[in-house]
Amino acid sequence: MEAHEEYSWRGRRVRWSRRGAGPPVVFCHGTPWSSALWEPFADALSSRYTVHLWDMPGYGRSSKDDGHDVSLAVQGELLADLLRFWGGPPPHLVTHDIGGAVALRAHLLHGAPVTSLALVDVVAQAPWGSPFFRLVGEHPSVFEALPADLHEALLRAYVSGAATGELTADQLRMLVGPWLGPDGQRAFYRQIAAADEAHTDEIEPRYGELDVPVLVAWGTSDTWIPVDRAHRLASMIPGARLELIEGAGHLVQLDAPVALTAALQRWLDSLTR
Known about the structure:
Keywords: Hydrolase. One of its GO terms (molecular function) is hydrolase activity. Residues 23-257 form the AB hydrolase-1 domain. This is Alpha/beta hydrolase. There is one protein chain. The protein is 41% helix and 17% strand. With 273 residues, it is of the alpha/beta class. It has one domain: Rossmann fold (3-Layer(aba) Sandwich). It has an eight-stranded mixed beta sheet with strand order 1-2-4-3-5-6-7-8, sandwiched between helices. Helix 2 (72-86) crosses helix 3 and helix 4 (131-138) crosses helix 8. It is globular. The two termini are 28 Å apart.
């Protein structure tokens, strides 16, 4: 699905798309991913829902301008404004990885109205960020200057570690494509260097305030954000439903697409009957 619409926000260009009819559902991707990871799920739900896909600035097809802040703080504020721009009833948000933190910040700090939250293997609690994140944060200019072939090899190895199975050539192309070329390479390391636990520390004490239905879904074999975080997160949110997806890693969308689609369909249908 091409992200063919554009929303301008503080000098950034946000690419987005919409299809289907029915209650609105907004998919929020994580890092180092893009909205392409959610496309098959948006397609599956578009027969009953109006689905929105969008790429955060610094990711996917959105602008990757040097000097733009791509932190969770900025992305959360942007999402709140983007939801107002789209209008309509409060949407269901389906989120992954840092997309969870972005959605939680948009709702808790910027007053974005939502009908429900689905938090799939999300960044929401400290500690997060791998040793690789810390290394890039200490030496971003070194990584940005890597020869293109070394950067691509590192990138392929990095994203492959998020899945439990072997990724296909097409899947790898989809995941690494936005980060290739000079602009993509700089953007890849820039968004890692912008990672800051302070942005989840700010909202973590407020999870008990959430008063909308929340689904916490997690791959039991996630090595990037282990499944114990799912139990802890669900326990912090009043009435949260916990659903574990056996054998799936952090890239649960690729490891267990049928199980995740079924879980999301059950969740949304239970709220819209």
